[in-house]
Amino acid sequence: MKKISELRDKILNCDYEIFIENAQVISKTLKENLNNININFEHYNSSVSSVSYNSRNNKKKNLESTPPEEIYQYQNFFLLKDEENIFLLDGFRRLLWYSPPSTDILLRVYDKKNLSDKNILKLLVHLNHTKFFGGIGDYFDRGFSLALKTIFNLDILKYKSVFDAYLHLEKVEKELYSFHGEKTNEEKSEEVVNRIVSDKFVEDMNFVQNLLNKDIMLNKNFGALLWKFRTENPEFVFCSEKFIEICENNKFIKQNYESLKKIGDNNYVNSEKVVNKMLELYTGVFNEMVGKKVEKSYLEIKEDVKNILNKVKKNKKLFKITSSKSYKYEDELIELIKNNGFKSPKFSVVVHPYDDSSSYSNKNKKDTLEPGYYEDFFIKSITFSRKSLGGIEYIFEIVNFSETVVVERNLVSQGSWSWRPNYDKVSLKDDSVFFSERKTRSQNSDVFFNLEEFWEDKKVEFIDKTKK
Length: 468
Hints:
Radius of gyration: 33 Å
Number of domains: 3
Number of strands: 18
Helix content: 25-40%
Strand order of the largest sheet: 9-11-12-13-15-17
Structural class: alpha+beta
Number of helices: 15
Shape: elongated
Distance between the termini: 99 Å
Strand content: 25-35%
Largest sheet: 6 strands, antiparallel, barrel
């Protein structure tokens, strides 16, 4: 290459050199340099062009084989050199994927030792200005991704969804029937530029790259989660080895990951739930890494409640009526109450954690009760009403001793057939507030009554509406 001059880049505040070289010669050199470091540049040409160029005689010629000479004469070429090689910053298609003509071209060459990683990224963004701001294709397409590979050894095509989400998504959770905060290239361009031209971008992408081929959920939601923790911990170094170690030692992460592999990351409700549960678990991993308090996840609390439930079931005095297979148990309970002077048996309730992994969950409301075991409940009333399609509905109003919490148990009986929900719902008892305006959310619960112990001062009111 023949050096012409040396100039100053006022934006990056560094010098660069201008060289002149034959397009075919520099193309061959660049390809050899990539081959020497085992990079197949053809792999980064995301669409083998079928576009043709109309010459003046209207004959179509393939752009790759005979590109127009003016795109070499009137468009710049940018390169980056280090102590051993020289690589492209801009002009990938013209010098790698097209067959360049034998014509001299001007090369603008930067020295890597004069640029920080942040300034190299800034230069790449500016050189891809039309992609970032013009919306003419993915900003990570072709040359941009190849440049990240050659300069930083970041193979973003292997984790493109994580990379893209890290650079523009705000919302972490997976949500069906929404755009999940995604924007067009034009809308997200400014956000993308700000995030990519940062001190920790290369470091964070190396973190992601080291998680490849591990049992880690690497999707756009993970990218958004990583960015969330980056903004909260701007100087922290995320260690991939530590992240993998924590995940491998967490049985809930391993179990949920197996569920994800079976269900898949797709647009179905079950996928939404399992992905969001995984994100909750990964949030715990990141919190542990940065030294923050790790809250128990839904899956962990669910197992705690399951252990409590199994312990309660061993109490021979207690009988579980939730999701029992026959309505005869409710009838036997009613007879038991009548035979004991309408006194209410003592009830216990096991409250389950609220599953907010679905789009339809009440994420903004608080739990009625902390998940766990509660005693001192009693039946305040039993209401009987006739259903329009036949059958009798039983409504058991079970409340705590202060009557601030209610468990409503519904049962429809029609001959040999009956219906009841799998769980009984526990919620705050506040008849003065509309259901939609309540600040707490109802939770699933399992209800037990004591076969031997009754409240002396708690009488059950029977309300018969079957004749109305």
